[in-house]
Design a protein that fits this description.
Largest sheet: 5 strands, mixed
Order of helices and strands: HHHHHHHHHHHHHHHHHHEHEEHEE
Number of domains: 2
Strand content: 5-15%
Oligomer: single chain
Structural class: mainly alpha
Shape: globular
Strand order of the largest sheet: 2-1-3-5-4
Helix content: 55-70%
Number of strands: 5
Radius of gyration: 24 Å
Distance between the termini: 68 Å
Length: 496
C-alpha cells in the first residue's frame, strides 16, 4: 500500500470521525456565543452583541472595561470565527449542524496541511503519514474540531504559517514570506493568545537557524507589518484585560498544568522520559544522535511549543483548548520516534500502533481508552440540559414570553427566539413567565427569591440531566461521552 493510499484512507477515516452525528448534541454556552454573534453578523454585517431583543453576555459590557464597542460591537474576541460561522449560515441555513460544519471541514483540511508540513520539514513520507494518523485518532483533536469555536482555524493558521515559513527558508522568495505574514495576521484575528507565542517563536527560529543578511531587511519589515496589523486590534479590544492576566505567583501552577495536560492527552512525556533514562543508563550515553531532518523539525516544533508554554505560564487560562495546536505539532515528533521503531522492526511497529490506537497509550500519557468512548459518543444519541430546556420551551412557551436563566442563556437565545433575561441577578422582583435554576450556577439567588418562586410557580422536572455544562470538550476531565444517567433532571419553573 502506497503512502498516498494510506493518506487517503486516513482522511476518509478522519472524515467519518469528524462528521458523524455532528448536529446531535446541542451547542453549549461558548459555541452558542459564536453562533449568536454569527447570526447577528448576517443581520448587521458585524458581530453585534445586541440583536434588538437579547444581549450576548451583557455582564461583559456592564461590569468589564472590555467587551462591547460602539453600537454593541463585540470586542471580547477576534472576529474570524464569527464570519466563518456566518458564511456557513448564509450558504446552508441556520442550525446546529451548519454552525459546526465549517470547523469540522477545517479540522479535516488541517490533516492535509499537516501532511505537507511534516513532509517539508522532515523530508520523510513515513513521518508525514504517522503525523496524520496520530492527529486523526487523537480524541482531544477530534472533539475540538467539531466545535463551533476558533479551535480549528487557529490550528489551520499555525500550520499554514509554519509551512510557508519552512518554504521561505528554502526559497527566500517574497511570495512565501508574504504568505507566512498573511497566515500569522489571520491567526491574530482568530485568537490573540496563540498569535503572540507563534509569532515570537518563528522570529526566534529565523534569528538562530535561518538568519541571512540578504533576507533580514525583508523579514524585519514583514515582522513589523504583522505586528502593526494585529496590534491595533489588540489595543482596540483591550485584549490584555481578559487574556493576559499575569499572575507571577501562579507561574509554576500553570506550568504544571500544561505539562500534565500534554502528558495526559497529547504527548507521553513521562513515558518517553523513562525510556530515555533507561537507555542512557544501559548504554552509558547521554544525548541522541539526530539526522539533519530531525534537527530541523525538532528545532522549529520545539521552539513553538517551548515559547507557547512559557507564554501560557503567565496567563491565567487553564484549558487544553488554548494549546490545541500542540497536538499536530507533537504528532510530528512522535512520527520521528516511530520511524526509529520502524527501522528496527516493522512487526513491532505494527503491534505497537495497534495497541496504541485502542488504548491511546502512544499519543496519550497512559491507557485511557478514549477512542472507543469517542466512537460510542458519535454513534449514539446524547441528551443534555440545554436540549431538554429548549424542547420544553418550544412546546410550552408562547411568543413574547421571557425566560430567566443564569447559565445556558446563549443556547436559549440561539434556539428559541424568546426574550432571555440573562442578567445573572436573582435578588430582584423580576418574575417572568419562566425561570430556570441550573444546579451549580444559581449561587447568586437569595432564599427569599427562591421561596417566592416555589410558591408562585409550578415546578417541571425534565427527563434531561442537569449537569454543569452541556458537554464542553476543552476539559476532558469533565467531558461526557454518553448521557449522564445519574444526574438529577433539569428543573424549569413556570408561573401558575
Amino acid at each position: 500500500m502506497t503512502h498516498n493510499t494510506i493518506l487517503l484512507t486516513l482522511l476518509l477515516l478522519a472524515g467519518i470521525l469528524l462528521f458523524t452525528n455532528l448536529g446531535n448534541q446541542y451547542l453549549w454556552q461558548d459555541e452558542a456565543e459564536t453562533a449568536c454573534l454569527a447570526k447577528n453578523t448576517l443581520k448587521y454585517g458585524f458581530p453585534r452583541a445586541f440583536d434588538g431583543e437579547n444581549t450576548v453576555n451583557p455582564r461583559i459590557g456592564e461590569h468589564s472595561h472590555v467587551g462591547f464597542g460602539k453600537d454593541f460591537a463585540w470586542l471580547y474576541h477576534p472576529w474570524m470565527q464569527f464570519y466563518i460561522t456566518a458564511g456557513s449560515f448564509f450558504l446552508f441555513g441556520i442550525s446546529t449542524f451548519t454552525a459546526r460544519l465549517p470547523f469540522a471541514l477545517i479540522g479535516l483540511f488541517n490533516l492535509i496541511l499537516l501532511y505537507f508540513l511534516a513532509l517539508r520539514i522532515t523530508k520523510i513520507r513515513f513521518v508525514a503519514v504517522c503525523s496524520v494518523l496520530l492527529t486523526a485518532l487523537s480524541v482531544p483533536y477530534l472533539l475540538m474540531m467539531r466545535q463551533c469555536r476558533y479551535y480549528a482555524p487557529s490550528v489551520f493558521f499555525v500550520l499554514a504559517a509554519l509551512f510557508f515559513y519552512s518554504r521561505f527558508r528554502e526559497s527566500r522568495s517574497n511570495g512565501d514570506l508574504a504568505l507566512t505574514a498573511t497566515a500569522l495576521i489571520a491567526l491574530g484575528y482568530t485568537v490573540h493568545g496563540i498569535f503572540v507565542p507563534v509569532y515570537a517563536a518563528i522570529g526566534i527560529h529565523y534569528m538562530f537557524f535561518s538568519f541571512d543578511k540578504k533576507t533580514f531587511p525583508r523579514v524585519a519589515a514583514a515582522g513589523m507589518f504583522m505586528l502593526a496589523a494585529v496590534f491595533w486590534w489588540f489595543l482596540l479590544s483591550q485584549s490584555s484585560g481578559h487574556i493576559a492576566v499575569i499572575a507571577p505567583d501562579k507561574i509554576f501552577g500553570n506550568l504544571e498544568f500544561q505539562i500534565r495536560m500534554i502528558n495526559k492527552y497529547i504527548f507521553p512525556v513521562m513515558f518517553f522520559g523513562a525510556i530515555y533514562c533507561i537507555r542512557a543508563v544501559w548504554k552509558r550515553k547521554i544525548g541522541i544522535d539526530l539526522m539533519s531532518e530531525e534537527k530541523q523539525a525538532i528545532s522549529l516544533i520545539g521552539l513553538v511549543v517551548l515559547v507557547s508554554i512559557i507564554t501560557f505560564c503567565f496567563v491565567e487560562q487553564r484549558h487544553l483548548r488554548y494549546f490545541v495546536y500542540f497536538i499536530p505539532l507533537l504528532a510530528m515528533v512522535q512520527g520521528l520516534i516511530l520511524l526509529r521503531l520502524a527501522r528496527r522492526s516493522k512487526v513491532l511497529l505494527a503491534g505497537f500502533l495497534a495497541v496504541s490506537v485502542i488504548t491511546g497509550t502512544f499519543n496519550m500519557g497512559y491507557p485511557n481508552f478514549l477512542l472507543p468512548k469517542y466512537i460510542y459518543e458519535i454513534t449514539h444519541d446524547y441528551d443534555g440540559p440545554i436540549e431538554g430546556i429548549v424542547k420544553f420551551l418550544e412546546k410550552n412557551a408562547s411568543k413574547g414570553d421571557t425566560v430567566k436563566i443564569i447559565y445556558g442563556d446563549l443556547p436559549l437565545i440561539f434556539y428559541t427566539g424568546l426574550k432571555i433575561d440573562n442578567s445573572w441577578v436573582y435578588d430582584d422582583e423580576h418574575m417572568p413567565r419562566w425561570i430556570v435554576f441550573r444546579r451549580g450556577w444559581h449561587e447568586q439567588l437569595t432564599n427569599d427569591y427562591y421561596t417566592k418562586v416555589t410558591k408562585k410557580y409550578k415546578e417541571y422536572v425534565l427527563a434531561y440531566p442537569d449537569i454543569l455544562y452541556e458537554n464542553r470538550p476543552g476539559d476532558l476531565g469533565y467531558h461526557k461521552f454518553a448521557t449522564d444517567k445519574e444526574a438529577p433532571g433539569v428543573i424549569v419553573f413556570g408561573r401558575k
